[in-house]
């Protein structure tokens, strides 16, 4: 209903004042949670019933987005297809007090990619009580996202590439949401393209405000840290369900992915029969490698690939056992290629030199869910 009223008003104002002026002065956002036209092609089957909008996605952005590019610190996770079902409350209400968010999902973008709190799951700083920021740690790509513990791609800051793809008509003129928070309130990016629309000074501590009609919304920060929201003004809801498979190593253990300094240049994904092969190329920087003969070697900058097709076809780094002969942490490259699917050319990949010495105990960080 609201859309129709807005459109009518917009047409009237455009006729009287001209379109340019309208963009700067119409302080009403578009509420269109049930409308497929308010989501990208990556979102399917939008429906509304029992007070909630429902939609599905595989959790990956437009294939043209430079996913994973620009990451310098990674847990060697790959962005894989997931099976998400989202539910967004249609008539959210402001709660008596805001709810703090912690590491984990806080919403979803209109392309069906989850949005997470800015922090990682790393331990909180003893002095500030805050967990490390994924953005400051170099974990995010140029679009503001990365692959997490479940090989799930998600954003931690404003989804920059998505906002650019949606464009000024969507974001500034129509004032359509770029996502929804887990309390049901829409997330906008006013001021991203057009500074005249900036609302930064009007935002409450959660980064929210009401439009002229009283509709509450969050607005992403358009500069520096690109924050999405700082807390939830409504009541957090269970809003997402997902199904996926964890990757396993050759011993059948779940791969949890140790963090390494690896500047990702490219990431790709292709199906070969029943396997999906993920490849990430980039430069390993400032790491200590365990060599087959037991010595270690410092790496300043070395190009290579991380890949995974199945538990008998992968090339990934694991942490070497600590020993008195090794100072600090060493990592080794495990390259297994006996079960690679037909058509996947490992020899055509520039891999790192594999470690072939005595078996390591393959300790890694404990599984953390997502
Ligand atoms: Zn993350």
Give a structural overview:
This protein has 370 residues and is mostly beta strands. It has two domains: 2-240, no CATH class; 246-370, no CATH class. Helix content is 10%, strand content 32%. It has helices at residues 2-17, 19-25, 160-173; strands at residues 43-49, 52-57, 73-74, 84-89, 94-100, 105-109, 114-116, 145-147, 153-155, 179-181, 186-188, 208-210, 216-219, 231-234, 240-241, 260-272, 275-290, 296-310, 313-319, 331-336. The strands form five sheets. Strands 3-16-17-18-19-20 form a six-stranded antiparallel beta sheet, with no helix packed on it. A six-stranded mixed beta sheet has the order 7-6-10-11-13-12, with no helix packed on it. It has a four-stranded antiparallel beta sheet with strand order 1-2-4-15, with no helix packed on it. Helix 1 (2-17) packs across helix 2 (19-25). The longest helix is centred in the N-terminal third of the chain and has 16 residues, at 2-17. It is elongated, with a radius of gyration of 23 Å. Residues 1-25 and 366-370 have low confidence and may be disordered. Zinc ion is lined by residues 116, 134, 146, 148, 154, 156. Zinc ion (ZN) binds at residues 116, 134, 146, 148, 154, 156.
């Amino acid at each position: 209903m609201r859309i129709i009223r807005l459109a009518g008003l917009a047409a009237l104002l455009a006729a009287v004042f001209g379109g340019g002026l309208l963009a700067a002065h119409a302080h009403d956002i578009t509420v269109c949670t049930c409308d497929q036209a308010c989501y990208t092609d990556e979102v399917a089957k939008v429906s509304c019933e029992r007070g909630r909008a429902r939609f599905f996605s595989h959790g990956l952005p437009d294939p043209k987005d430079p996913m994973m590019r620009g990451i310098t610190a990674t847990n060697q996770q790959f962005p894989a297809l997931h099976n998400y079902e989202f539910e967004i409350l249609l008539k959210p209400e402001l709660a008596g007090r805001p709810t703090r968010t912690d590491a984990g999902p806080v919403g979803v973008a209109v392309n069906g990619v989850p949005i997470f709190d800015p922090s990682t799951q790393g331990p909180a700083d003893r002095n500030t009580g805050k967990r490390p920021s994924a953005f400051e740690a170099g974990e995010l790509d140029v679009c503001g996202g990365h692959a997490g513990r479940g090989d799930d791609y998600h954003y931690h800051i404003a989804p920059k590439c998505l906002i650019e793809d949606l464009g000024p008509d969507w974001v500034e003129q129509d004032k359509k949401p770029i996502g929804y928070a887990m309390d049901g309130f829409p997330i906008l990016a006013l001021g991203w393209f057009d500074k005249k629309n900036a609302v930064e000074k009007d935002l409450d501590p959660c980064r929210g405000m009401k439009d002229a009609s009283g509709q509450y919304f969050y607005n992403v920060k358009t500069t520096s840290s690109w924050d999405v929201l700082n807390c939830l003004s409504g009541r957090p809801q269970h809003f997402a369900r997902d199904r996926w498979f964890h990757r396993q190593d050759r011993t059948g253990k779940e791969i949890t992915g140790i963090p390494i300094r690896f500047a990702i240049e490219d990431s790709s994904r292709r199906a070969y029969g029943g396997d999906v092969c993920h490849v990430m190329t980039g430069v390993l920087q400032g790491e200590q490698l365990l060599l087959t003969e037991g010595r270690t070697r410092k790496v300043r900058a070395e190009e290579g690939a991380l890949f995974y097709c199945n538990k008998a076809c992968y090339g990934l780094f694991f942490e070497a056992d600590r020993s008195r002969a090794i100072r600090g942490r060493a990592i080794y490259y495990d390259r297994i290629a006996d079960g690679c699917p037909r058509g996947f050319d490992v020899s055509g990949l520039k891999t790192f030199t594999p470690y072939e010495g005595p078996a390591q105990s393959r300790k890694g960080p404990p599984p953390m869910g997502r």
